Structure formats: C-alpha cells, structure tokens
Amino acid sequence: MKQQIKQVVNNLDPISLSEMDGVSLMKRTDTKFVIHQKQLIEVLKTVTDKYRVLEINGNRLLTYSSLYFDTEDKKFYHDHHNGKVNRTKVRMRKYMESNICFLEIKQKDGKGKTTKSRIQIKDFETKLPQDLIDFIDSKTIEKIDLKPIIWNKFDRITLVNKHAMERLTIDLNLEFKMNSSTKEYHNLVIVEVKQERFDRTSPVVKSLKEKGINPYSMSKYCIGMTNIYPDIKYNRFKKKLIKINKITA
After folding, report:
1. What are the distances in angstroms from CA 8 to CA 1, 46, 63, 83, 211?
2. pLDDT (tens digit, 0 to 9) for every residue of the chain, 249 residues total?
3. Which structural domain, as residue segments, surrounds residue 66?
C-alpha cells in the first residue's frame, strides 16, 4: 500500500522547502482527521490538481523522528488528559532527509489556536543544555524541569494548497518507543489541515466529508504515552484508542 500512496503522490506538482516559507503558519488552527491508508489513497486521487507536495532530495514521503520531553510527573500529558485548554508540548524533531533538527515548543490556547516556537539545534540531546532550558523558560514563562519521555517516528507527506493559505500534513507508519517498550500503528493515517482559521471549502476537507469522515481531535504524543506507559491514567482517551484499533484492525 505504501507503493500505491507513493504513486498517487508522484502525480502532484512539487514544492521546495524554501518555497514553503510563505505558508509556515506558525500561528494557526489545526484540524485533524483519522483514517485508514486505503481511504488516504482515495482522497489523494480527488485533489491531485489542487495541491503541491513538498519534495526534498527527490523524496516526497519524508521521515520525521521526535523526542518528547515532559516533567517527572508527566505534567504536559496530564494537562491534555484533564482537558486543560492552555497546554504545552516540548520536543526535539529531526527531519531525516534534510538532516535538520529543531527544539520545538507547541502551545495551544483556549481559542483553539496553536503557536509553535522553535530553535535549530545540531542533533538530539537527551539532557537539555542551559541555552535550550532558557529558550523553553522564555516561552513557557515558568521554570520546568524536563526529561526525555518518549520517542516518536513516522513518515509524512506535506501538501500546500495552490490557491489558499493552507498546509496539509499526512502522517503514517507511526512508531513509539522508550527504553524496551515499543508500539507501531500500521494502516493508521493522521491528516492535519493547518489554516489561519478553519475553512470547510478546503478541497481535502470537502473530499473527506464526502466520504463521511469528520474532524477528529487526536494527539500522537498522548496516544503514544498510553501505549508506552500502561499504568498512566487514560480515561479521556479510551474512545480514541478504540477508534484507532478499529481503523487499524
């Protein structure tokens, strides 16, 4: 199925990393959809003339590796689980094909807006150096003692709308690990539409709706945490886990 996805994606016009700067959308509204890889192929076939696809060194299916940080008592995870509207995620993310690595801070406010701040780093570091601690403190306005909590790896296709301020990320082949614990999700696809404000006229949103697929909020980080840390509280995510298991069955 991965080969079928590649074939469909190869029909799209390319866009380079430098051309993507105009649609970085560091402040945005994110809308997620959770689907099976077969549904992804059907959706992509309907929008091939509406989007361009990010291509780096000839690759359109790009590999991302992330290391998330949290406190000893997993504050960021529990903030999300407990429904706190103002919440934070801190991670290091490496774009494998371009060999570029960033420390990234994602903050969501009570209005559903996401702000991402980041600073380029040389590579993953499991112990945060002082300059990165200072950067995190400056964005979170509080001092937080953070440690590595979970590794995440996935393949991503990034699409850019030809006619509107919209980006689209398509994540598949998700893997989570920490120490000796691992979890892989085959067939699961997370589609995330990034816009200045949610626009239902988006070609991909319309295509998904025609197939009866509605927005579905889901955090890769939180889903990974429930698998890697089996003793963690996850009542809020039980329905999401059931839905994912049905899709991937």
Report:
1. 11, 10, 18, 38, 18
2. 778 998 999 999 999 988 887 666 666 788 999 999 999 999 999 999 999 999 998 999 999 999 999 999 999 999 999 989 889 999 999 999 889 999 999 998 877 778 889 999 999 999 999 999 999 999 987 788 999 999 999 999 999 999 988 999 999 999 999 999 999 998 999 999 988 878 888 999 999 999 999 999 889 999 999 999 999 999 999 999 999 999 887
3. 2-248
Read off the CATH number of the domain in which 159 is found. Answer: 2.40.320.10
Tokens of 116: 């991402």
**Which H/E stretch holds residue 99?**
none
Whether this model's pTM surpasses 0.85: yes
